[in-house]
Design a protein that fits this description.
The complex is a heterodimer. Chain A is an alpha/beta fold. Chain A has 12 helices and 15 strands. Chain A is 35% helix and 25% strand. The chains are: A alpha/beta, B mainly alpha.
């Protein structure tokens, strides 16, 4: 479908092939500003994780991106065309699951999908039935397809919504909280579907408030907070930007702190030892400093900054204004 | 493509339990009327039986027109409002409207498909009622030809022609109210709001229509357009009132669809 390869584009900023792009997006409902100054860039072939707490504007942004909602201000470009005017040309290539699955309760899963398929412009009438069966098979719903949607479990409903997005081979798939209500097995299946799509060169956009989800499936991340993008880029870049730390286990905490302070390395006590920020220094240098000062080092572990910590810091930062103090209070929660 | 969408729309409407129950209910109306009239005329020959029974006896082909005329005041508009309500507000409520718009179906075409569904189902429902009415009329009251209001008797095909013409006229009235329903339906995601508004509107219109001091308003009330349709039962058919009624319904239809289009095109969903 797309010309891009399955390898993620190296830098989202300079890349020319962009599946979706927004500039200065703003949406105001009455007196509430739902989304403001959103500049989003979705490189072709990437899996973009849209991360944000509830009410951060993820769904509103997605709805504007799909032409469902008219932005108050700003521009949207989807698959090379401006929205909402170009909707008829690009939306057939876009599959989406927005704001949870929406189906008619009195019809079976299959009938619901047949109805969706009837309105898919890219689907020739002759292949409607096979497309529906394929999609049902793909999300593992073939056995329950004859049952009424009314009786579906939350997970089955979610799967059916996913099936509707997969009816046609798409260039871009937008999934709004796709693992909502799924059990671990279902979550793994969704991850596999996303991985398959990515391998086939399809651009995917996933929104989630589950950080592990984004970390496991995405190549790019965009973090939304209070309606604005607070960070975006490649997942690996963002993880590195978060900095890393060293956890040192030692019985002589006071001695170690003094030694590090003299060497101008920031550290503070944590648990059975201390946590050393590796900013402007390296792990061997820290250990060397400690050993020279006569501190018995029992254990030194690289503390990688998980996306969870990054996410927490980014979203909490605005509330406390001082990002450093936010880091301090949140360290206990980071378990990586 | 659009044919496939229309077919899908009709299948969707016909699959709804409430549509089927509604259609069965509509079919019962002429049967109950026929049975009731039969009971009234059976032994009413003696003491100067009521005018209605006397007219209906042996005049079974009048029954479909009689039932459609009575149903056109409230029953049929209610059914049309249910379909209009489910069409946009109901889809919006279930989150399926989003799916259709993302597919994408252009908003104007979506309204077109919805209106097609409403119009086709209305024609189907009214025709069904007429067919059941003919059968019930012949079964309960017999058929000695159709006695017109002008006093002469129409026979065979001419009588069926009149019934078919009346079916078209009543369907048009029903669809025009349904179009207004679609306009309301485009503004809300609560189907009940649509049905309640249409019902309330019809009742208010009926009250306004009965106030002589407001007679300047009467030509604009859709509820006052109905009585004129009875002219179908005169021979030859005087076209004046029928034309006025249909023209008024046409105005409601155009206004309803225009408002629905304006709302749907700019709607955030």
């Amino acid at each position: 479908m797309t010309t891009s390869t399955s390898v993620p584009v190296t830098s989202p900023v300079v890349s020319t092939a962009v599946a979706a792009r927004t500039r200065g997006l703003r949406k105001v409902y009455g007196h509430t500003v739902a989304v403001d100054r959103v500049d989003l860039e979705l490189p072709e072939g990437a899996v973009l994780g849209m991360l944000g707490p509830n009410g951060s504007g993820k769904t509103t942004t997605i709805r504007m991106l799909l032409g469902l909602v008219r932005p108050t201000q700003g521009e949207i470009e989807l698959l090379g065309r401006p929205l909402p005017d170009g909707a008829e040309h690009v939306l057939p290539h876009v599959g989406a699951l927005v704001e949870g699955p929406g189906f008619h309760p009195f019809m079976s899963g299959r009938e619901n999908l047949l109805r969706c398929a009837a309105f898919e412009p890219l689907l020739p009438t002759g292949s409607v039935k096979t497309a529906v069966e394929d999609a049902l098979e793909r999300v593992g719903l073939a056995a329950a397809a004859h049952r009424r949607y009314r009786g579906y479990s939350l997970g089955m409903k979610q799967r059916l919504g996913l099936a509707a997005a997969l009816l046609v081979q798409r260039k871009l798939i937008v999934l709004d909280e796709p693992t909502n209500g799924l059990d671990p097995a279902g979550t793994r299946e969704v991850r596999k579907v996303i991985a398959d799509l990515h391998a086939a060169g399809t651009t995917v956009m996933v929104s989630s408030h589950l950080l592990s989800e984004v970390e496991a499936t995405c190549t790019h991340v965009c973090v939304l907070h209070r309606g604005t993008v607070v960070a975006q880029g490649e997942l690996s870049d963002l993880l590195q930007a978060g900095g890393s730390a060293l956890q040192v286990i030692t019985p002589e905490v006071e001695l170690a702190l003094t030694a590090l302070r003299q060497a101008r390395i920031s550290a503070r006590p944590l648990g059975e030892g201390l946590r050393v920020e590796l900013t402007g220094t390296s792990a061997p240098a820290v250990v060397e400093t400690l050993v020279h000062a006569g501190v018995p080092v029992h254990e030194a572990t690289r503390w990688k900054t998980g996306l969870e910590e990054l996410f927490a810091r980014l979203t909490e930062a605005e509330e406390s204004e001082h990002s450093l103090s936010a880091v301090d209070t949140l360290d206990g929660g980071a378990s990586r | 493509m659009i044919v496939r969408q229309m077919r899908s729309e009709l299948r969707w409407m016909l699959r709804r339990p409430r549509t089927l129950i509604g259609l069965v209910g509509l079919c019962l109306v002429p049967i109950v009327f026929g049975f009731g009239t039969w009971l009234a005329t059976r032994d009413g020959d003696g003491g100067g039986g009521g005018g209605l029974e006397a007219i209906l006896k042996g005049n079974g082909l009048v029954l479909p027109i009689f039932t459609l005329f009575l149903s056109a005041a409230l029953l049929l508009p209610m059914v049309a409002s249910i379909w209009a309500a489910d069409g946009l507000a109901g889809e919006s409520q279930h989150g399926t409207l989003r799916g259709l718009l993302i597919a994408p179906v252009s908003r104007v075409r979506l309204l077109g498909v919805k209106f097609f569904g409403l119009a086709t189902m209305s024609l189907f429902a009214v025709t069904l009622m007429a067919v059941v009415g003919v059968i019930s009329g012949i079964a309960f009251l017999g058929n000695d030809g159709m006695l017109t209001l002008s006093g002469n008797v129409l026979s065979g095909w001419e009588a069926f022609g009149r019934i078919a013409f009346f079916v078209v006229l009543v369907t048009f009235q029903m669809v025009s109210i349904g179009a207004v329903g679609l306009a309301i339906s485009a503004c809300t995601e609560h189907p009940l709001v649509v049905q309640a508004s249409i019902m309330a509107g019809l009742i208010v219109f009926a009250v306004l229509g009965s106030l002589p001091s407001l007679d300047w308003l009467h030509p604009f009330l859709i509820t006052n357009a109905l009585p004129g349709l009875v002219d179908v039962m005169r021979d030859p058919i005087p076209t004046g009132q029928i034309w006025d009624s249909t023209l008024l319904a046409g105005c409601y239809l155009i206004i309803g669809l225009s408002l629905a289009t304006i709302r749907l095109v700019t709607k955030d969903s």
